[in-house]
Automatic annotation (TrEMBL):
Residues 26-43 have a biased composition (Low complexity). Keywords: Signal. It comes from the Bacteria. This is DUF2388 domain-containing protein. NCBIfam families: conserverd hypothetical protein.
């Protein structure tokens, strides 16, 4: 039973994140910060962000207590590439990564 609770928390966070705007998206849609997402990312950049999904899920589920190296790299990359991401919190960016 103790192992099931974190799974439900992850699923709930992932479900919530699907409603968040995506800073990391390539669709050019509006982000939660009100500007459009970067559409000029390369496949290597996408791999960096997508590779951080597990770390992002743990970060969101732990309310920011667990910070993985892949998530840190993805957050740094997103902030370098997208001005709107610079104004977003780590939690908002992690949710956007999960929404991809």
């Amino acid at each position: 039973m103790k192992r099931i609770a974190p799974v439900f928390a992850l699923l709930a966070c992932a479900s919530f994140a699907t409603h968040a705007g995506s800073f990391a998206g390539t669709t050019g849609g509006a982000s939660s910060a009100g500007s459009s997402a970067s559409s000029g990312s390369t496949s290597g950049d996408d791999k960096r962000v997508l590779g951080a999904r597990d770390d992002a899920a743990m970060f969101v589920a732990s309310d920011g207590a667990i910070r993985g190296a892949r998530l840190e790299a993805a957050l740094r990359h997103l902030r370098e590439q997208d001005p709107a991401a610079r104004a977003a919190s780590d939690l908002q960016l992690a949710q956007a990564i999960l929404a991809r």
